[in-house]
Amino acid sequence: MKRDTDRYGLFVRRALMLGAFKTGLLGILGARLYWLHAVDGEEYKVLAEENRISTRPLAPTRGLIFDRTGEPLATNRNTYRLLIGSDTGRISDAMRQAEMVLRRLDRVIEISGPEHDRILAQLRRNRAIVPVAVRENLTWEEVARIEFNTPDLPGVSIELGRIRDYPHPEAMSHVIGYVGRVSPEDLDNSDDPLLELPGTRIGKRGIEKDAEETLRGKPGAVQVEVNALGRVVRELDRVESEPGANLLLTIDLALQQYVNSRLEGQSASAVVIDVVTGDILAMASMPGFDNNAFARTITQAEWQALLNDPKKPLINKAAQGQYPPASTYKMVTALAALESGTLGLSERLFCGGYIELPGKGQKKYCWIHPGGHGWLDVAEALQQSCDCFFYEAARRATVDRIAEVATRLGLGASTHAGLPEEAGGLQPTRAWKQGRGTAPWGVGDTYNLGIGQGAMLATPLQLALMTARICNGGHAVRPRLIAASAGPGAKLQAPPVQMKPDAKSLGFRPEHLRAVRIGMEMVVNSRNGTAHGARITEAHMAMAGKTGTAQVKRITESERSRRMSQEELPWHLRHHALFVGYAPTDKPRYACSVVVEHGIGGSVTAAPIARDILHEVQQIDPSRHPERFDNPLLDGSNAAEASSATPEPTPPPEGSGSN
């Protein structure tokens, strides 16, 4: 009996202990539930809503680009794109599913190895929930095949998107540039969620890159309800995106196309600039390329073909090409000598065909006339392009004064015209050479600089700017490519006609500029001028200018004695041909520079091209004809129509479906 009593007591104690333990646990759980509900309830309610409701950005429509007359240069067109996402929220499961789907897709539409790797990398970076664009510009045959296989392709969808379109690819590729896919570097440098959206393209070169923030617009947002797997259940709210601003360029498309046609077949560039306003009316670089290929994603074969072309079509030679300016630089040397007072306006210097370097026992020749030009003043020296005259003028002026004048004329630094890839050229100085750790600056360096050779480098854009500042009376006009911009729905306003420069004066004495301009007029319109054969015969359109021939390969004494011709050399070793000029001579309005790579001679190759360009621009006269701006597409209400001018892909006729 006692044993039963003891057992009962033990059972009761254990039951009480267990009950107390359970009661304690229930108390703790109750307290925790109370805490979560009463104290932290609002915080967890917000977190639950964030898990249930997802806000996703809406891509804005990219702004349009027009030429100065309202002709579209960059628009948007509709396209079908293939997207791949995930049905699962776990990244490991999502990536396994994506690899399986991509293998199946490869049997429907071929997917290359690099594209396969890109898609997986982007899915991993986007955490596999945000869809990734697999292919754009789908044909109806491809759409039909994908739709037919949709049950076996989880996470795959087709949507209607927009893609950039360039109506004049060859003529405008270097100025407009192109858009391309967002790279990992772009994502690292920006926290804009818009860049993660499938199909997003951003500016990579040219105006597209320089004006990226203006053209991109502002993203909208859509609020959707999602399930536990992250898939959209329904749309709750939407704020539409704001399209990017539209741009009006200073480029005249008709002139640009003419310049391109005139440079056809050459590795060459040309720039036409309004000397009053600084508007760049044409900037051509040949050969060009199809920038639509980059907008739709260029193939490896297309990329390699562009890279392997010896004429380098991807380089904007007008803004990136850097060349010795050769004799076109002699105006700088002349101004520096005149401004420094070391050369008088009527002073004459003697050319005997060569000069000797002091203490070197070397000769510097007058390449145009080895027999010597005799006595010349500054205008005559420009007319006949006498090297010996400018050797002596450079020695008198010194490198410091020459570099100072060159900088004022726009050489040696980027012009900031609106192209991110623009090169700055090179204006050598004493400090520059000292910084290289070589021998100090010598008289031979000054001689070379005086005729635009040696280390001196300039771009065609800089040479056009230099010419504009000389012929407009010494005003510091700045080149520009963007004339105006306007937000969505607003009208693009053409800039008013301007007859006189409003830029500040560069401080050159008018009589010195006049002497240089007289020399440039004599280059073209005098019988002894180096470009007399390329003159414009209509007196009211007459042009002035300066030829230049830049050495690519140093001519040895033996080659000079053998009178070895440039035609005997391989193409890539021949001289570059240059010409700078302006027109009309009485009231300059347009300046032009032409550089023909390996064109042998400025007078025979570059000058005739410049003559035709300056004749054409005066006939069109874009700077003084505002009525050419009267284009309905420049009205904000009509600009959007240009963006959708290319219709949506239309389905094939009934009965012609694909399987």
- Bin the strand percentage: 15-25%
Shape: elongated
User: What is the average per-residue confidence, as pLDDT, rounded to a whole number?
Assistant: 85
Indicate how many domains the architecture comprises. Answer: 2
How many strand segments?
Answer: 20
Structural class: alpha+beta
The CATH homologous superfamily of the largest domain is termed: DD-peptidase/beta-lactamase superfamily
How much helical structure, as a percent, in the residues?
Answer: 25-40%
- The low-confidence parts are 645-659
The second-level CATH architecture of the largest domain is 3-Layer(aba) Sandwich
Q: What does the main sheet amount to?
A: 6 strands, mixed
Organism: Vineibacter terrae
EC number: 3.4.16.4
Membrane topology: Single-pass membrane protein
Biased composition (Low complexity): 637-647
Structure characterization notes:
This is Penicillin-binding protein 2. Residues 59-236 form the Penicillin-binding protein dimerisation domain. Residues 637-647 have a biased composition (Low complexity). Residues 620-659 are annotated as: Disordered. With 659 residues, the chain is α+β, with helices and mostly antiparallel strands. It has 2 domains: 66-229, Penicillin-binding protein 2a (Domain 2); 253-286 and 319-629, Beta-lactamase (3-Layer(aba) Sandwich). It is built from 22 helices and 20 strands. The chain is elongated and about 140 Å long. The termini are far apart. Residues 645-659 have low confidence and may be disordered.
